Amino acid sequence: MNFEHDNLSGGQENLTRLAADIKSWGRALGFDEVGITDTGLSAAEAGLAAWLEAGCHGQMDYMYKHGLKRSRPEALVPGTRRVISARMSYLPDAEDALAVLDDPARAYVSRYALGRDYHKVLRARLQRLADRVAQSVPHAARVFVDSAPVMEVALAEKAGLGWRGKHTLLLSRQAGSFFFLGEIYTDLLLPVDAATDAHCGSCSACISACPTGAIVAPYRVDARRCISYLTIELKESIPEAFRPMIGNRIYGCDDCQLACPWNRFARKAVEPDFAPRHGLDGARLAELFCWSETDFNERMAGSPIYRIGHERWLRNLAIALGNAPSAEDVLAALEKRREDASLMVREHVAWALRQHDGPHVQGAV
């Protein structure tokens, strides 16, 4: 990046006008809110270092392999002077989340993953926004959506889009926390927005709601205990101690968000791509467990769930089936995969069958 924008015709007045235009253009592209911040993340950098040192990242080695690039935008993209942060609501018109969680025969999928992969949706919109800016002022820019070493919550907080809640997610007084974040790194020296005040107060609803106690302290999550980590990021067998706590959550977990009082203001998504696909907002566990690898690949194409692959999909479902009532379809589904080709799947199926404590457990792995 080597453009010199400080001497644009009209100077700071034009940049202030451009910042207002960027927010307007962003809203027209479907973003609920857009903010602008500088690149200073020293406080967040210290917190990240302590979190990594404690091993709270588990197997997510990508959290530290880029060194300081995560907390220093100008190190990731040389020449970066400002970050344009944007949020987009994703809560779909779907089966009631709590109703699904209360029905152990049905599969709970985190609300963000019910529709099309958000990476593609947001990245395309952010690129259109960056291109629109370039029509007014030539600038060097890069777009990010949860796909690079970027501290998106810290940047969004500095940009005035909300504050970090005790569950570590960004919270907004206008929209709760059911939204995606994305960023544009730019060399434009735009005016920055003021951060907002925090409004969690003494509330600890999210901490109490976590099924596995993963929120080990306010503003600190130990990923190794988090159901989202266990069902999505962990590539190995899920520790037995956590399996009963997972319940019927087969991909991710929203409990901390569902318990948060601010989410009474959560906005329903207007983006059609976030609508549930293949009935995943309330499908029966036994039905999903019968999907072949071909079924999974075809139906999950374009979904964030695709990244875990069929084997981990079955692993997660086996746990949920082990936690389900001992209904005929549940036991039949598990029996069919007793001799699955995957050792990991067989091990989880055997555990699930043991939970039902019947004669069908003979010969289990």
TrEMBL record:
GO terms for cellular component: cytoplasm. Residues 190-220 form the 4Fe-4S ferredoxin-type domain. Binds 2 [4Fe-4S] clusters per monomer. Pathway: tRNA modification; tRNA-queuosine biosynthesis. It catalyses: epoxyqueuosine(34) in tRNA + AH2 = queuosine(34) in tRNA + A + H2O. The keyword 4Fe-4S applies. It is found in: Cytoplasm. Cob(II)alamin binds at residues 70, 146, 170, 181, 228, 253-254. Its EC number is 1.17.99.6. [4Fe-4S] cluster 1 binds at residues 200, 203, 206, 260. One of its GO terms (molecular function) is cobalamin binding. GO terms for biological process: tRNA queuosine(34) biosynthetic process. The keyword tRNA processing applies. The active site is at residue 146. Its cofactor is cob(II)alamin; [4Fe-4S] cluster. TRNA binds at residue 235. Belongs to the QueG family. Monomer. Catalyzes the conversion of epoxyqueuosine (oQ) to queuosine (Q), which is a hypermodified base found in the wobble positions of tRNA(Asp), tRNA(Asn), tRNA(His) and tRNA(Tyr). This is Epoxyqueuosine reductase. It comes from Zoogloea ramigera. The gene is queG.
